[in-house]
Write a structure and sequence with these properties.
The protein is mainly α and about 270 residues long. The protein has 2 domains: about 100 residues; about 140 residues, no CATH class. The protein contains 7 helices and no strands. The protein is rod-shaped.
Length: about 270
């Protein structure tokens, strides 16, 4: 069945973001190095002038007045140097603070980008399995389509576990999916009856197939949303409390029904305009 790819706005890649932040950090580091060099030069100048003052005092013990004047001048210079050093120190502290803030902001931004990218990829995984499940819903063989749908749902869970680095357990996965779907009895009934209806020649295959397509896509969508939400919050299959997710699952079934119906309607419109 044809589908339409909705291209999302192109965003800077993760490597581009990292490269931009690295350039900024390199620029700030260069500025810090320049300031450190200036401080070193000023400190050396201060030492030289202090030594000069001491030499003059030793040379002319007699001319204390002149030496006193020279000493006062040197003190003023030292005061100016100290003031400059204080200013440079404040500038250095400000640059250090700015660099720290920028590094923290860059780390936060990279974390946000990584989380957004992972969410997009997980939604793509769900969409691929929805397409596969809807295609299997068109199988003309009754009961076989239900078994195939179960396999698609389990494979979806396996793929999401791998995506979120969660340990997969097939037995637990089957039990959780079965519990979620059986708890939403209308959907389970629709899928089962849609498969049984296919026993009716011709009309049964067509009608049951359409209902099976919608039911398959809806259930796969809801299962995917449940486990994406659980894994994204740091959960895994060990702490998955299926009873607590049944209400959320039912809400996502309704949301998925609208989503799948809209997709089918869109495909029909494209087909009719072709």
């Amino acid at each position: 069945m044809p589908t339409q790819n909705n291209a999302a706005p192109k965003k800077p890649t993760l490597s581009q973001q990292v490269k931009t932040q690295a350039t900024k950090i390199e620029h700030l580091t260069t500025q810090l190095q320049q300031k450190e060099d200036e401080l070193t030069a000023l400190a050396a100048q201060s030492d030289t002038e202090q030594q000069t003052l001491q030499a003059r005092l030793h040379k002319s013990e007699v001319a204390r007045q002149a030496a006193g004047i020279a000493c006062d001048q040197q003190k003023k210079k030292v005061t100016n140097i100290t003031r400059k050093l204080t200013q440079k120190e404040k500038q250095l502290q400000q640059l250090t603070t700015e660099l720290t803030d920028k590094l923290a902001a860059a780390e936060t931004q990279l974390t946000d980008i990584s989380g957004q990218q992972r969410t997009i990829e997980s939604e793509n995984i769900v969409n691929l399995h929805i397409i596969a499940g809807m295609a299997l819903g068109l199988l003309p063989v009754p009961i076989l389509d239900v078994a195939a749908l179960t396999g698609v749902q389990l494979n979806l869970l396996r793929s999401l576990c791998k995506h979120y680095n969660v340990e997969f357990n097939e037995q637990k996965g089957k039990a959780f999916i079965h519990s979620l779907i059986s708890g939403a009895s209308p959907v389970a009934s629709v899928v089962g009856l849609s498969s049984i209806v296919k026993f009716i020649p011709a009309i049964g295959t067509l009608g049951g197939g359409i209902s099976m397509v919608i039911g398959s896509g809806t259930s796969i969508y809801a299962v995917g949303q449940v486990f994406i939400t659980h894994f994204r919050s740091g959960g895994d299959l060990q702490n998955f409390a299926v009873e607590q997710w049944k209400t959320f699952f039912k809400a996502k079934l309704q949301e998925g029904k609208v989503e799948i119906s809209d997709r089918i309607q869109h495909v029909k419109q494209l087909a009719s305009s072709a």
